[in-house]
Amino acid sequence: HNIDQRAPIVRFEHDGIVVECEQHGSNSAGFVFGTSSVIWPIAMVLGRHLCRNPALVRGKRCVELGSGTGMCGLVAAAVGAARVLLTDTAEALPILRRNAADRADVAELSWGDEAHIAAVGGACFDVVLASDVIFHQEPPEMALLATTLAALLAPSGVCLIGYEFRDDWGAAATFCDACVAAGLRVESEPIEAPDDLDDDFYLYTLTRAARA
Q1: How do the pLDDT tens digits run along the chain, 212 residues long?
Q2: At residue 128, what are phi and psi to the nearest 5 degrees?
Q3: Which backbone phi and psi does 148 adopt, to 5 degrees?
Q4: Nearest CA to 30 among 6, 10, 12?
């Protein structure tokens, strides 16, 4: 993946912003099946994008879905977000809490779980972040993700979803269709990546669709 998933600590550094996160690779006793305990390239790419465009998160209330190690959300905090909430499923929370320390809040949030959504505050977030959450997912999971994004997003807020293309345009198309069905407007564009990452990376920007 052109990224070290076995190092115990991952270091992000860009434009004077430095964030370090613990990770547990497949060679570690703390490895969590499902990839949530290791860093993935798009998290670093989206982090760089936030550093280059700090106004996207500065002074805003941010939540990250499927946070894994929490890298994207922690970069948002370092850039100047007013509040950052990192979320994932229960088994991913121990490493997430350690990485968050006093830099961000942490909560359990399974996509589509109304109790979890209500517990974190519902449609009160200016920015919803996620990276690598579209990878070869089935339509039911994409529908749950889309409805969760819509449920968390403040009326004038924006979702920023980082996506690494791995021959799964079907999942991406299903995700976009699910977002439209959930009342979201979808825009996509390539996102600049470091030269040592030779895959294709995209940014999905989602906002609430205007009502007819």
Answers
A1: 567 788 889 999 998 999 999 998 777 777 676 667 888 899 999 999 999 999 999 999 999 999 999 999 999 999 999 999 999 999 889 999 999 999 999 999 999 999 999 999 989 999 999 999 998 889 999 999 999 999 999 999 999 999 998 878 888 999 999 999 999 999 999 998 776 666 789 999 999 987 64
A2: -110, 120
A3: -70, -45
A4: 6
Q: How many Cβ atoms sit within 10 Å of the Cβ of residue 15? A: 10
- Angle between helical axes of 41-52 and 71-79 (0-180°, round to 10): 10
Q: Do residues 13 and 41 touch, judged by C-beta distance below 8 A?
A: no
* β-pairing verdict for 61-65 and 83-88: parallel
Longest dimension (CA), the chain: 53
SS3 sequence, the chain? CCCCCCCCEEEEEECCEEEEEECCCCCCCCCCCCCCCCCCHHHHHHHHHHHHCHHHCCCCEEEEECCCCCHHHHHHHHHCCCEEEEEECHHHHHHHHHHHCCCCEEEECCCCCHHHHHHHCCCCEEEEEEECCCCCCCHHHHHHHHHHHHHHEEEEEEEEEEEEECCCHHHHHHHHHHHHHCCEEEEEEECCCCCCCCCEEEEEEEEECCCC
Q: Which pTM was predicted?
A: 0.93
Question: Is 100:80 a contact under the CB 8 Å cutoff?
Answer: no
